[in-house]
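Researcher: We're teaching a course module on how sequence relates to structure. For the next exercise, students receive a sequence and then see the predicted structure as tokens, so they can try to spot secondary structure elements on their own. Here is the exercise chain.
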Amino acid sequence: MKRTSFILMVSVFVIASITILFPHNTYSASSSPVRVDKIDHAIMPLYGGFLLINDTVRITPTSENTTIEGFRIGFSLEYKGNLHYSMAYEGESANERLDVVSNTGLGTVGYYGVTVSFPSRVQDLLYDGQSYTFTVVFVFSGTISSSTEVVNGTTEYVFTADFPAFPSLVQNATTCNVTIALPKNTVYDTADLPFNVTQKQEDYYLNYTRSNLQALTRKSTEISFSSENKNAFACFSTNELNREISIDADGGIFISDIFLLESQTDFTVDKIRMVLPNAAENVVAYDEIGKVLAATLLPNETNVYEVSLNLVANQFRSLKLTYYILKEGHLTPFEGNSFRLNLSLSENLKLVAKTFTLKIVFPEGATIQSFPSQAMEIQKDVFQETLSLHLSNVTWLQNEQWSVTYTHTVFWEAFRPTLWATTIVIIGSIVAFILQRPKALVSAVSTIMVPRKILNDFVETYEEKKKVQSELGQIKRKAVKGKVSRREYKVRKTTLENKLSSISKRLADSRQKIASGGAKYADVMRQLEVAETEVDNLEADIKRIEVRFKSGEISALTYRQLLEEDLKRKDRAKTTIDGVLLRLRE
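Model: And here is the predicted structure for the students to work with:
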């Protein structure tokens, strides 16, 4: 009796386990409601180290009057950790998207599968017994390795891609065509499968056909391709991408992209390629210390730039790209004082960003009316509003089109100039009032002779300040040119700034003592202070002019004219400072 009970319990456990491993909705190849007439399995190794697999499937119902809600497709489970993104669409354009449910499996262990859900119109088409074609896209990373080898005295840079040779289906496929398009400027070396290799100009294509592809096929394969140019192909990950879009009052759109890149190529790469939005202009590249890098538009390309940035194996580098895009096609007037900004999540960026941050800065005085509230957050300042967005694992295929509307009146275009004009008028009135004071009052103010030692100490301390400021400028220029290490720059910069702070305190004490000597000395200190303020303002203005020129806001001619004018004013202010110090020495 006990033996019978034990056997019964074991049988129940086995049946329950089978039920878990093989759900009721699993169907075998023989009982499938659809027949796979043909599947095109296209593999494309992409620059950056990604692998794009497109499976275009043509199915036909095995009988009419059968409701078919979806289709399952996948690959061997070993590639699950390399998958970044999956999507599906119908027709030849990826605009007609189909819903994809991830990680649904294929009804048995050892596979990763997704289910493509068909809309009602497609279900009706299949219900009537008609054929249907759709495409499933998978994006993988970390499946391409690199190495170098010397052939006949020439170094070749070799890449080996590992991927599923065929798609895994829950039913047989009549025909499976496998096609591999190798990256440009690379040549075919070897492969596991007997591919038919064709060459069109400088591009290599590999083809292989498998008839009667069995259900649940699970086979991996490798191909190798190489180049004598080490910059022809590279593998790297984008750990962070911070994009800031600034819109000025005239509708100009300025973009700043900051990338944190990690090299995954086993040899040093001197240049990397970056794809920018269409019609990007005035492209400027910077490294992590602000050094300008060469950025060249590739021949026969409209938006692919080659940037001179060294990437060493397992090294992190920061890259900043700034550029200007025309408002045509992106910013349009909308109902009076309103404007509509049309943008895409990651326009043309052929990469996967592990962390993606987007910030949109609107003109001063602009009021945001509508935006994709499910994704973005709004921040409000006194005169300005911004939108921000934070996402993970963003690919170029997630090129969602978003619209943001805002209002902006003409008043705000003149706000800053009016504010400055008003300030100048007020300051001018105060200065005129002081200059027109009765001379009797001025002469009535007694003048106290300031001790020579105080005056000499002030002049010497001021000369010391100028020397420290000069050293600060020199060390910064050396850091930009890479003549000193980043660590050494930080240490010396901190030391000089601390010294400058101490000098400024001593000067402030001396200023007060000298100014208390009477109207004559107070006027001298005032002239010095005004000249110092003007120098600081002009230096800030010069930096702003450089930014406007790099962003393409002003022409080269305007840039030279504004820069020349500011430099002349700066020299006059410095001459005033030198004259004050000379008078104090006398």
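Model: If you want an answer key for the exercise: Confidence is low (pLDDT under 50) at residues 1-8, 10-30, 439-446. The CA atoms of residues 289 and 480 lie 6 Å apart.
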